[in-house]
Amino acid sequence: MEAFVEKIGPAPDACLRYQCDPLHSDTPLHPIIQQMAREFGLESLAGTEERRKKLADAIRPFFHDDEEAIGRLATLFGTPADAVDRSEPPVTRRQRTLDGLVELIARRAMQQPLIMLVEDLQWADPTTEEVLRLMTQRFVGLPILLGVTCREPFAGDWLISAHVEMLTLTRLDRNESATLVRNAASCTLDESTVLRIADSADGIPLFLEEMTKCAIEEGVGASDGMFGARNSVTLPTTLQASLNSRLDHLGSSKRAAQVGAVIGRDFPISLLGEVIGRQPDELDFDIERLVASGLATRRDEGVEPTLRYRHALFQEAAYSSLLLAERKRLHGLVLNAYERRFAHPDDELAQILAQHAIQAERWDKAARYVGLAYHNAVQRSANREAVSLFNRAIDVIGKLPQEVAAPLAIDLRLHAFTAFHTLGDNGKLVELIREAARLAELIGDRRRLAAASTQTAFALWMEGKHSEAQKCAESALAIAQLPKDFSIAVSVLFNLANIHQAQGNIVQAVKYHRQVLSMLRGGLENKRLGWPAAPSAFARAFASWCLIELGEFSQAAELLVETETYPDPIEPHGLVMITTGRGNLLMRRGDFGNAVDVLRATLDLCRKGEVLTMTPIVSAWLGHALCGAGRVDEALAVVVDAVERETYRFGGKYTWIHLRLALAEALRLNGQLDRAAVEAEVAFRIADDCGELVHRAYSILEKGRISLTSGEPAATLRNADEALPVARSRGLRPFAAECLCVKARALEAEGKAGEAECAAKEASALLSQLGLMDDRLFSFFSVMTAQSA
User: Fold this and answer.
1) pTM
2) pLDDT digits (tens, 9 = 90+) for 130-144
3) Is 775 exposed, middle or buried (0-12, 13-18, 19+ CB in 10 A)?
4) Contact residues for 668 (Cβ-Cβ < 8 A; gap 6+)
5) What is the three-state SS of 664-711?
């Protein structure tokens, strides 16, 4: 790649270089931030505000007056707290920041062609990989050459575009190897030596170069200085042996190379001196010799002069030449030196300090710095990096004494909720929180046990394990002490409401939601208490859904109207909750056109605000509303998209059921009865496995509609008769009316006019109670059957 760039000869600012680093595979955007720091001269600035201002000034010509975009990119050089902005959710801000990075390069390319070189992708952090994938999509048609090297096979999604090509670099053959040896030699070697090296290096360019240098260095001491002496040189048999030989030729400078390797591939000269115990000017000879050997290069730009190993393998060779005990001691010295320099380490430095603490076996410090790196990743919504750091932190904490480790392990698991939940890994989340509860009980920490039990209940509810969830929630409620455990009590009661709703105890669910709302008065209505939105918004939304199922439309409307002054208009999660409730109310009352408008806008807000947990249920209800409005093709498009993108992974099991039922309905109305039956069966099995009695009944009735459309009224009648007792016993008047409507149609199809009339009259009486006795009499309940009949 270097030869290629040299041949093209681009302007200095037209060649952007990004180096991935194994030490920073969990540091979000590490190679990108490093490249920007070098290019825009930020390395020489010590203050955070100075760096941010200089970057803003440098990129302003590309963004003109878009101060919002400039501000997002500038926060990359601030603290993690700078990345937190209540004006948009963290995930949204993260995505817009990534889009801004891609757009910055694209706009630069519009002014001059660019070359971008990304090396060692196998060490890239997940966020950098995401940016690179965005670049391959955005850069189509732009004068940009993006070259990426990787020691491992590229993932398949890198090769989905015609403008992306993969080149596999094979090993050099004998003739190519010999040519490289001749060009790498600083003096003329006889042909037999050239061929010996070519035959021994297995076609690996770096090995060929190193063996050539080793051969020359070994032959320099020959008395006659002629080529015959070189012929007797014993060539190293491995690359490691070759590099070790090079290190041995450094003499006293080898120590500087070894200590530098402990610090990292890049190491400041002053830090090297501090660890060795010498002044920087006392290292001049060693540094000059190290640079002259070709193992390292010197950079004098930035805050202070630094050395960099020319290749990662050079650093590895120097590092591995140290005994384990000496490595441990030196890592401890490096850690001490860094701590003297930086009282408040940033993202990148936290990772560095953590690594040195781990290698020094200073487990208390390691736990602190890995935990800090994890916290920073969560704040930046770098959830994949956060999960990786979480796993490292658990390993580190396990090295500490139990009395110290247990509280740290509990808190780490409780704080892991956001990252694992956002990635849709609810199964792992249940496992983590259960372990937190076990540890809290083991050490007798009441408050941590209550918090862990609350989160366990939520995670189990999401997984559809409602009986276990209820036990955990009730246990947490018994432990919680008011007023100091106020936020825990609110969470427990909200969880209990959702658990009862899932089990079909809708009336009890409403009581719990109203209890939550009664606690959140007196200025607490819009307080978030650590939630994605104000708990009052969640409670009102979920309570309205329960009331709608009970047919208490007026009460549901009152709850939703009371939210007009909140949630905070700049917070999308709360808005999604409330507008979903409004759309659901419109749909259940048969006002499908307005329901579609509200729910479509809500779905857009889910996507823009990354409200992942609500996306599946909003998609399902929008599908229902579109079906009711007779726009079946649109309904299919919405619901199929939600299912194919597996949006249900981010919601509870109830969202799986609603999505499958919405898809079954749309397929039925589209005439795809076999597929509709499959989806209805999937919904039934999920509901049955989870013990969600009401959702099971919904699935049974949908099977009945499909049977009726297929000309099997007897099967429909059995389905309606099985679902109806559930509706009646649970007080679900709208669903009971729906069951009766379907039953009446089935009886009519069987020629049982008298029984059909009785069922229709009972349905009519229920609808009258619900205030739906108008042109929309059967709008919500039987329009789908009528359309497909």
Assistant:
1) 0.70
2) 899 889 888 888 999
3) exposed
4) 676, 702, 705, 706, 709, 784, 788
5) HHHHHHCCCHHHHHHHHHHHHHHHHHHCCHHHHHHHHHHHHHHHHHCC
